[in-house]
Target: DUF2627 domain-containing protein
Amino acid sequence: MRLIALLLLVTPGVIAVYGIKLIRDALFGEFHTIFFHIAIQGLVGILFVVGGLAFIGGFILHRDRKRNLTKGRFKQKD
Model:
């Protein structure tokens, strides 16, 4: 079970790291051929970073809610 949880967190983490690489390459002018324009490359990088971090944050929040470790602000409403 822990291996599955680890894989669920590593995969979006790797995607977020690749997004950071795409953003850096777009800022320094390194163009990848799969994108049509360097601005599209930067936007895809931003989406990868935001999506990866949102997934990891949502996973941790869900786990903490399940174990009743959150403060009143993050409690689910009935």
In short: The chain has one domain: 2-70. The longest helix spans residues 38-66.
